[in-house]
Design goal:
The chain is 41% helix and 13% strand. With 437 residues, the protein is α/β, with parallel strands linked by helices. The longest helix is centred in the middle third of the chain and has 36 residues. It contains 14 helices and 17 strands. It has two domains: 231 residues, 3-Layer(aba) Sandwich (Aspartate Aminotransferase, domain 2), CATH 3.40.640; 128 residues, Aspartate Aminotransferase, domain 1. Helix 8 links the parallel strand 10 and strand 11. A seven-stranded mixed sheet has the order 4-12-11-10-9-5-6, with helices on both faces. Strands 13-14-17-16 form a four-stranded antiparallel sheet. The chain has a two-stranded parallel ribbon with strand order 1-15.
Amino acid sequence: MAEMFQGLPDPVRMVLEQTLTHNRWRRYECVNLIASENVMSPLAEMAYMSDFMHRYAEGKPRKRYYQGTRYIDEIELMVMELMGKLFNAEYVEPRPISGTIANATVFHAFAGPGDKAVIAPVQAGAHVSHTKFGTLGALGIEHIEMPYDAEEMNVDVDKAVRLIEEVKPRLVVLGGSVYLFPHPLREVADAAHSVGAIVMYDAAHVLGLIAGKRWRHPLDHGADLVTSSTHKTFPGPQGGVIFTRVKDLYKAVSKVVFPRFVSNHHLHRLPALAVTTAEMLEYGEAYADQVVRNAKALAEALAAEGFKVLGEHKGYTQSHQVVLDVRELGGGAKIAELWEKANIITNKNLLPYDPPDAIKNPSGIRLGVQEMTRFGMREDEMREIARLMRRVAIDGEDPGKVAEAVRELRSGFLEVKYTFPFDPSKLPVSEKLPLLY
C-alpha cells in the first residue's frame, strides 16, 4: 500500500490509505447487518464511476438549462422507463438525491405551513423525515401520530381510521425505517381518501422486496405516491425516487423537486440506477425471496441462541429486518460496539418502550440481511452468524478472537450475486476502479 501512494503529500496519502483500508475491511472481512445499506454490483459500480459525476443537467430530459446533456438525457429516460416497468408505474421522478429529499418533495407539493399530516407512529418505525423533528417539521407541517398497537407492533387500524376522519389531514404517511411487518395500508388509505388526503408511502427500506414481489405493492393497495431511497433492499446507488400512476400528482412533484429541493441531481447515479433496475427485473424475485428467507432464519437462530428477538408471536419478521432487545446484555450501544470489534456491523436502535432520552444506549439492535444475501449467504450462514453473535454478546468471548472466525466466514462470500456476468479485472487500465478491486 505504501508503494502505491509513494510521493503523494501526507494528507492525500493518508486519505487514500484510509479509504483503501476501509474498502478491504468492509468488503472482505466484515459481516454487514446494517438494515439501511447494500452494495452495487461491479457492473453498476463501473457505470457509477463516470464523467457524469462532474456535470450538470438542470431541468428535465431534452428540456435542460445546460448544453452537453444529450447522453444523460437518454440515460435518465431509460431509468424512468425501466423503473416504470419494474414497479408498474407510469410516472417516475428519479431526480431526488435522497429518500429524504423525495419525502420533502411530496410534503411540499401537497401541504404547507399549518397543514396537518398523519404519520405512522415512531414506534412503528416512522422515519425521522416524517416527523416534527425532521423534514415535515422544517416545512411547518403539523405532525400527528397514528395510535400504536403494541401487541401487533404496528399501527392500530381502527383508532387510526377514526383519527384521520376527525383530523382531516392533507397528507397521510406510511412506511418506515424499523419495519418488520407491513403497515395496514388499504384500511388507512380508504379513510384518507374519504377526507381528501393524499397517501404517501415511504418504501425506502422495502423497495427491493416490492420489486421482487415479496412485499405488497403500495400503489396496488391505496397509496397515491411512493417515495424511496435506492440503496437499501434495492441495491443501487445512493439516491431517491418518486413514482405514481397519476399524471397530475407526477406533475405536481416534478415542479417541486426542481427547482425547490434539487438543482443538479448527481448525474452519475443514473447509469448505475439503470443497471441495478435491469438487474432487479431479471433477478429481483430470487433475490427478494432469499432476503426474506434469510431474515426469518436469522431471527429464529438468534432466538435459539438465547437472544430476545421481537415479534416472536408473529413469526419475527416479514421483511429484511430483525430487531433484538439487548437491555439485559448491557444495551444497544454496548452490544453494537462489541460486535463491531468482532467485524459484525449493526446499529443500536430505540424500541417502542424506550424513552426518547435512551437514544445514547437504547434497548434495541436493528439488523438487516440484504447485503449479506447479495453476497450469496443463505440460511446456513445466518445460523452461523447467530452463533458468532452469541459468542460475543452472551458468552463474553474476546471480540478479536471472534473476528477471525468472521473473516473466515466472509472469505467464502466475496462476489456479488443476482447480477449480470461481469469481470472488472478485464477492464482496460483506464477504466478500472483501483480502490474497490
